[in-house]
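Appendix B. One record, verbatim.
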Amino acid sequence: MTPRPALAFVSLVLIAGAVLLIFLTLLGGAIDKNPTNQFYFLEADTNGLGTAAPLTRWTFWSSCSAMDGRNTCPGVKAAYPFDPRRNFGTDDIFGGTKYYLESRFMFAFVLIGLFFAVCALLLGIIALVSRIGSFLGSATCSVALFFQTLTAALMTAAYVQGRDAFRADGRTATLGRYNFGFMWAAVACLFLATLMLCVGGVTGKKDKGYSSRTGGRKFFGRKKSTKSNRDRGSFIDPERQRRMEKEDDD
């Protein structure tokens, strides 16, 4: 029995998990509900910096103040950039084009990756019954993996450097463990799903199965012919056969 259905099912679970993790990260800062109001990329001490709150958390949608361990976001804006100098309207802190572009491209890439991950999830259903579905799902999932890896890499580059810059300025700063965990876990899920779908498509090849069935027909054909000859010979009376041989000698 081919392992393709089992591999496809596990891949579906992994892709669904990756989609859920990406959605949770996207919802952080956009919806003021538990648990998404605990998700952020970076938390830093911003006391005395322009219009900033004493403690600020960055999400995909805003720079939020933090109260009782929850995000408080006054307004949301898609692809909100991580650029403290621009965010707070002051030159007393780091910032610049590098941080701005990394965070903006990160938002675009995560949406592209999410789209292809959803497509791979739908194709994964076809992979349960078809090798073509396995190959198509693997190809689509690999595209999702590519953009999700870019997103996670840009996230790490921007916010780790930001954390270090805050600390160098004598301020406390910590990374958001949930968002970082979700993003890199989604990368791992998509990688494993891509691998399993590809393996599922390779195993149980149609050509191999066809040649096996053809060989089986030929084998049984020869066996039938041998059996038929043996059966015909069993009906010949031994005494009659000896008489026939004696008459031939005379």
